[in-house]
Amino acid sequence: MNRTEQLKKIYKKISILQNKSTFHISIISSIIAVLISSILLLYIYASAKQEIYSQIDSRINTETVKLQAYYEQPPKKMRATSIQETNTLSGMFSCVFKSNPKTDKLLREHSGIMLFNTMGEVCSEFSIGKKNKKESKIRIQISRIKNDSDILAVGYDDKKEKAILNNIKNASFIAIFICFLAGFYGSFYISRAITSIVSKISRTAVDFANGNFSARLNYTQKDIPEMEEIANNLNEMLTKINSLILQQKQVTNDIAHDLRSPLTRIHTRLEVAMLSKRSNKELEEVISDSIDDVQKLIETFNTLLAIANTETINQENFSNNEINDLISELGDIYQDLIEEGQKFELEICQEKCFAFIHTALLIQAIEAILDNAVKFNSENGTIRLQLAHNAMENKINITISDNGSGIPEAEFDKVTEKFVRLESSRTTKGNGLGLTLAKAIIKLHKGEIIMQDNNPGLKVIISLPSS
User: N or C: which end of the chain has fewer CB within 10 A?
Assistant: First the structure.
């Protein structure tokens, strides 16, 4: 690729970005930064110049005072036409000339003020010496010698200081130019990076909205490092949305599957009752069975509403409570509910256990799991309710176990989903929402439900953070 093609490619990239607000903002920020840098560098230059010439003027003043004291001594008085270079190494020059109207005017106009001129011009103006056109301009101070009509002029060659100031000025211009280039490149790079991210997010969002639920945001090594974090977070969000969509479809199918049977039964009973003559007792049975099915439907929808409300509830009604007595009361209640031949054991740790809970919701979750334990326990099995404090992990564990048929380990995660019932329990009463409601409540408490094989039976552990 030749240089012309490279320039065209760069121009094309800039043309694409010039209409982007990020590029405009970056350019404006860069210009502001360059202006601030310029003002700062100019201030440094002006301060350095002021300090350097302040020192020069101080040296000239010192030299003037010294020469005045020297020339004011009568034995050492010099002729007015003399021009003396006092110290070549220090860069100091001096001359003495006779006072006249012109010198008096010059003295009045520049008394205490530094001149910027050449020594030859100052002295030759009063017919002393000859003008040297090659002579450079220097800092000069003129003053009258006491008790005499002579004028003293003292100058200092500031070419070294000028060189230093020129270096500072040149360095300032170079720094400003570098700042401008760096700002422009930074604006171009930042705008390009942001535009690339936004474009990728936009394309992924459009693909996802158009039904491509597998669309994910990709990043490469050319992208900025933050792109990886953005991509991971957005992809996680898209995965969760996709999961919710799939769950919604599954719930719709499950509702259709679980509600079709009771609705069909109600419809069949009522239709048969209308087509054939029935006794009052038979009609009462039809109505009673239909009411039972309708009640189950109402319970199902009430449970679904409870799950939805639980998943969106805030923690305003939560408080820090001791749960030892709560577990003890539940144990006493279920002790009386178990069937004949079954056993119920209650184990509560001696240590007081505190947790940040919504009491009514936590009771509802524990009851849902206890109901399952009672429902699926074997005839002579034991239901065990335990409360323990895990000080090492700062957790409170509520364990409910039974000796029923249990659940295969591969099904542990599935049984907490909506309307999920194992095939072996399809004929058992229930709607498959109990564990789903319990999971939603425990998740609201920032806890988790852990399932384990009880050999035989199932062990469910409700793990809550201790407060």
Answer: N
- Could you tell me the two tokens for 16? 């694409």
How much is the pLDDT for 399?
92
Handedness of CA 247, 249, 252, 255 (dihedral sign): negative
15 in a domain, yes or no?
Answer: no
Asked whether residue 83 carries a pLDDT value surpassing 50, the answer given is no
Residue 2 domain-assigned (yes or no): no
Quick check: helix, strand or coil at residue 123?
helix
Residue by residue, DSSP assigns 141-185 as: EEEEPTTSSEEEEEEE--HHHHHHHHHHHHHHHHHHHHHHHHHHH
- Which DSSP state fits 42? H
Last residue of some domain: 309, 336, 360?
A: 309
| pLDDT digits 0-9 by tens, 13-62 | 444 444 456 666 767 777 887 888 888 888 888 888 888 888 888 888 88
pLDDT, tens only, 119-160: 766 665 444 334 455 667 778 887 777 666 677 888 888 888
Q: Confidence band (pLDDT; 50, 70, 90) for 85?
A: very low
Domain limits for position 118? 74-158
Helical packing angle, 280-312 and 434-444, nearest 10°: 20
Structural domain count, the chain:
3
The two three-digit tokens of residue 49, written as one number? 């110049």
Radius of gyration of the chain (CA): 48
Q: Is the peptide bond prior to 225 cis by the omega test (within 30 degrees of 0)?
A: no
Spatial CB neighbours of 17, under 8 Å, sequence gap ≥ 6: 23, 188, 191, 192, 195
Q: Name which residue leads in pLDDT, 418 or 274.
A: 274
Residue 461 lies in a domain: yes
Q: Are residues 289 and 368 in the same domain?
A: no
**Are the CB atoms for 138 and 119 separated by under 8 Å?**
yes
- What percentage of the chain carries pLDDT values higher than 70? 72
Which amino acid, one-letter code, is at 417?
A: E
Given 113, 138, 158, the domain boundary residue is 158
The answer to whether residues 257 and 336 belong to one domain is no
pLDDT in tens, 442-451: 888 888 988 8
Long-range CB pairs of 204-213, under 8 A, 24+ apart, other chains included: 204/234, 204/238, 208/238, 208/241, 213/238, 213/241, 213/242, 213/245
For residues 460 and 330, state if they share a domain.
Answer: yes
